[in-house]
Design a protein that fits this description.
Layout lengths: L1 E6 L4 H12 L3 E7 L11 H5 L8 E2 L11 E4 L3 H14 L2 E4 L6 H13 L2 E4 L5 H17 L4 E8 L9 H13 L4 H4 E2 L14 E7 L5 E9 L2 E9 L3 H14 L5 E3 L1 H5 L5
Parallel strand pairs: 1-2, 1-4, 2-3, 4-5, 5-6, 6-12, 7-9, 8-9
Antiparallel strand pairs: 7-10, 10-11
């Protein structure tokens, strides 16, 4: 049975992941941690999350529990995530990273660690449905080609710290690659004032932050006289947490390397 350590156990995702780990018969929740100043430190992780006593006490650091698990599931903050990855690599532990806001520099660090002594699944979104969405967008863009404008609208709760969402950026990258473009060159992330006509190559990504919306992403393919809309709506955070547990169960026996949810779900050839 795979032993799991939960990073950020007092966060919204940390609490749901803890529950989903408990429900997975192939996983065992053996440790959890938070920032040393977090008031949840010292509490039972299950009682803190509202699903009952587990006997697992929330620790004040990863180092203090690193020997209690085989894989760390992390949905925290990108600067913290890279520090955890360095520790995991040092101790030869696997990671599942769903943290958003990772920079190209952060991803380069993960790739460098993976070449040495690190096994990791990293994805901007671990929902099964969203990963199918990624593939559908790429295939749709490839079929429709340059005759259709591509626009992406993402909506999240008012507490989300990064914009656009990692999922929206991945959707943009999938569409851009299928159209032989680079999102870094054609992405348009804000429109205001007299901006002129839309160019044929640009891919727009717009962000909405409001209320307690868990997450919605719509990709528009708009052509002459018609449009296609592909939408994913998350009703709660359990789909993300469930995907993370699937990744944790999958990753432990794999060779060192940086993997994605496409690997976990067998979608690479889809």
């Amino acid at each position: 049975m795979t032993r799991v350590i939960i990073a950020g156990a007092d966060g919204r995702m940390g609490k749901r992941i803890s529950l989903m780990v408990q429900k997975n018969p192939n996983l065992q929740l053996t440790a959890a941690f938070e920032h040393q100043d977090n008031p949840a430190v010292g509490r039972d992780v299950g009682e803190n999350a509202g699903f009952g006593t587990t006997g697992v006490i929330i620790a004040a650091s990863l180092e203090s529990v690193i020997n209690q698990g085989d894989v760390i599931i992390d949905f925290t903050f990108h600067t913290a995530t890279i520090g955890f990855a360095r520790i995991a690599s040092e101790y030869g532990r696997a990671m599942v990273i769903g943290t958003t806001g990772l920079t190209p520099y952060d991803l380069a660090i993960l790739a460098e660690l993976a070449e040495k002594n690190f096994t990791c699944v990293q994805a901007p979104n671990m929902s099964i449905g969203v990963n199918v969405l990624f593939k559908l967008v790429a295939k749709t863009a490839a079929v429709l080609g340059d005759a259709y404008d591509v626009e992406i609208v993402e909506t999240h709760h008012r507490m989300k710290k990064d914009a656009p969402s990692g999922t929206a950026l991945k959707l943009g990258e999938m569409a851009a690659t299928a159209l032989n473009r680079k999102l870094s060159s054609v992405g348009v992330f804000e429109r205001h004032g007299i901006i002129g006509e839309r160019t044929d190559q640009e891919i727009g990504i717009q962000s909405i932050r409001a209320g307690d919306i868990v997450g919605e992403h719509t990709v528009y393919f708009a052509g002459a006289g018609e449009r296609i809309e592909i939408t994913h709506r998350a009703h709660n955070r359990d789909n993300f947490a469930r995907g993370a547990t699937l990744a944790a169960d999958w990753i432990v026996a794999k060779p060192n390397g940086l993997y994605t949810m496409f690997d976990v779900l067998g979608l690479n050839d889809f």
